[in-house]
Amino acid sequence: MDAMRLRLLAAAAAVLALTGCGKSVSPPATEGVTDAKILAAADGEWLSYGRDYGEQRFSNLTAINDSNVGQLGLAWSADLDTARGQEATPLMHDGVLYTTTAWSMVKAYDAKTGALKWSYDPEVPRAKLVEVCCDAVNRGVALYGNKVYVGTLDGYLVALDAKTGKVLWKKLTIPEGSHMAITGAPRIVKGRVLLGSAGSEYFTRGYLAAFDAETGNELWRFHTVPGDPSKPQDGKHLDAALKTWSGDFYKRGGGGTVWDSITYDPKTDLVYFGTANAEPWNPAYRNTNGAGDSLYTASIVAVKPDTGEYVWHFQETPEDRWDFDSNQQITVADLNIGGKARHVIMHAPKNGFFYVLDAATGQFISGKPFVEGINWAKGLDPKTGKPDVNPDAKYELTGKPWVGFPGAVGAHSWTPMSFSPKTGLVYIPTNNTPQVYSHDPDWKPGTTGFQLGIDASPGNLPADKAIRQATAAAMTGALVAFDPVTGTVKWKVPQETPTNGGTLATAGNLVFQGTALGEFRAYSADTGKQLWSFQAQSGILAAPMTYMIDGEQYVAVMVGWGGVWDVSAGKLVTKRITPNISRLLVFKLGAKGKLPAAPTETKRVLDPPPVSGTPQQLAVGMKAYTNSCSVCHGSTAVAGALNPDLRHSVALGNPKLWQEIVHDGLLKQNGMVAWKGQFTPEQIEAIRLYVVQRANEDKKLGAD
């Protein structure tokens, strides 16, 4: 009886351990991908977005190494059916490669041969594109048991049968009718699917939520910003955060979305995640009494995976006014710091400082610049990590435009970094992209598009070839090998453009990275010497991964130019722009595969109607275009490779058709929704007249 009683008590304890917030959790997976397999992170497979729980993106495989990487060739490739930015890291289990494409589609391939096993299309409405800052991208799936999980752009978590792609269940995870979107990859922790959403510029309130991996039932939801101050908050952490907000911020949501980084640490049994900017960017419109920090935006937050209970936070950019999200990859590692073994998390957010924090407590250990030229802060307090903010960077107080570095693209954005325990270095894709910030005294919340509170028009470039060329020349990137112990750059590879791809580090003394200009490269991990390259024909944003089958090592990467730099910056500040040719490329030693010839680019000739707007109309149109339209159609009305360039629009000389498209939403099915709630017909006409002016200016310059 005593033995039976003990067994019953043990069983009861196990059930309780799987219970969070009063909701039961299904038993853990016992076949397929299990908790134990994710924890073990077998060398030959890639079972989670960052390969292991710690998101190190490091592989112990050595079959491909610094002595033979020059023999790497194309084993197979697969053309994709979504001509937008591709940002996913594929996963590999049991000989099958699982990946997502733009528009949240999922594909499963034979990892050895490239044969397509199945494909799933969630049929995301194309009108959703207006609620996404940075293209219709998706960063990948999660695997658990015999299921594949994907978060869709329109806010669903979908569970698919891993063998067939059949939909097992589909759950809406965002509030009904919200402007949120999902672009990040789910993570699996103790039978829970962890997922947040994007959209801190679109009337959103950020959160991280946990869902039962078997049923999809929501187990807990941790909000990152307070709700209505007149009502009870859902957690003591929000009572504390409320003191750092003021005014009617809650009516717009507050921002702080969890759109990418989610990391689990078995040693501390904590989940760490990064949060986005506050909404709007301009603090003058969210902190009417100067209360300040806007917690828990631009922060790293640690919670318990079973319940979502708050444990600690570290705010990297208090009172963020520059869009310095902290959603970049969070990496767990063991480092020897000052002669003492420390279990830490490492983070390289947009703001340009590399943070090392104690994993258990969030205690600040160090924070050093990983890029040069940071001017928003003079440095970090060596004890607290709090930034010494440059008073000139507070544009809402000075009333003057501020040329800030980094800009909103960030010194490091979502493109994943990797950490090699062999070299002790972190390999970071960095950007050199300053930006003009300016207070908009006339701003009011709109109904469609970005909600920033700033006037971006002072950053528009004049119709001057020399100025444009100089600006484009200043926009660069680099692959940086950073020593987290010393806080110094070990080596750096300058790159011609910003927004290059994520990295993969291997025990073969290699670092793999793709570039915005379409080269897939391998570098020596200890010196940064380039050892190999492959011309992929299109820009690479995604991070590579590696796996082994039948004793052969493979390296895979998603290819397809797009993302925020293309849709918002356009080709005006880009030296060269690659077309979107979306593919999955897989390499192995000795392979001889070749890609089809790249299509020939057709140069378009500008043929606009004559300028006819009044100076007042052109001024109104310029400001409206810059603050609302440029996020999709490019800076100064010059588009990138993906979205329509309005200077070439057939509607440019047809005011009636222009109104039908912009005011009425004639092209809603293409993502161009109606803007009648945002702009009057007169403002819409002013936008047309401004684009006409811009097209004529560029025609005179001989631009296309």
Tell me what the structure shows.
With 704 residues, the protein is an alpha+beta fold. Among the domains are: 1-60 and 88-237 and 245-270 and 305-317, Methanol Dehydrogenase, Chain A (8 Propeller), CATH 2.140.10.10; 66-84 and 507-601, no CATH class; 615-701, Cytochrome Bc1 Complex, Chain D, domain 2 (Orthogonal Bundle). Helix content is 14%, strand content 28%. The protein has 9 helices and 39 strands. The strands form 11 sheets. It has a 5-stranded mixed sheet, with no helix packed on it. Strands 4-39-38-37 form a 4-stranded antiparallel sheet, with no helix packed on it. Strands 5-6-7-8 form a 4-stranded antiparallel sheet, with no helix packed on it. Strand 10 (147-151) and strand 11 (156-161) form a beta hairpin. Helix 6 packs antiparallel against helix 7 (615-633), helix 7 (615-633) packs across helix 9 and helix 8 packs across helix 9 (681-701). The model is unreliable at 1-22 (pLDDT under 50).
